[in-house]
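Our preliminary data section would be incomplete without showing what the modeling component actually yields. Below, a chain of 256 amino acids is followed by its predicted structure, encoded as tokens that our downstream tools consume directly.
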Amino acid sequence: GAVGDLTWAASNGRKPLLVTGSGMRVAFPHFSRIQDVLAELERIVMRYLSGMLLLSTLWLTLIVVMCPGVVQLIYTSKWVPAVPALMLYAVSLSLDMMAWVVAVSLNGIGRLRTSTFMIVCRTLLNIPMAIFLVYRMPQATAFNGVAIAYLISSVIAVPLVLRGLGPGATTRILLGLRWLLLGPAVGIGLGLSASWLTAALPLLVHVFIAGLAGMAGFGIAVWMIAPPWWKQRLLARFAALRRLRSPLQPVNDPSP
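Predicted structure:
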């Protein structure tokens, strides 16, 4: 039963990794072509990360705001005990995406030692910590120790792999992506407030309103604090779609 709960929580909490996998198949040759210019590589990595993390933080917002109600509606109350593990895996999702994107970039420029070192360290930390936490936690919720260990090892893995991009890259990338933190903070706050206010409504209506409020808060916050280059790039993409522009026609990219 515990294995089933963990498998369900991990697969649903990290569902957007399917998108990351598809993106990384395209990114590897992209990184390989610019391996001789580290400054350009870092800029491109930032572009990939901003898109991937936007998806993962939106997913986290929806999981936190809608998860308990959605689980009861779709999976029934039998799966409610696995909700904490689901949220822990959803928090780990952004860290997984960062580690994956940067590791692929390092593989693309031939720095396999750093990415391999990160994977080994993460595994050596994750498995013993998971075993320890499972045996130290109450039996009914002991399986959550596996999700907690996974989150802790993910936190440690990100700086390990970022250091492979060169001196100061960890600080530059993390500071450059800090604007993405406001979206989930506002979205979760607004969504949980709406959830509390609509608790007396039917479950389906309650979940829908909470999710809508969370998405609205997320979108408004991201748009208000996003850097100008990101807004211009997004508007340029929408303009291209409206005009049905050919995909072979170049689009001006205002990213720095």
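The longest helix spans residues 38-74. The chain has a mean pLDDT of 87. Preliminary results of this kind motivate Aim 1 of the renewal.
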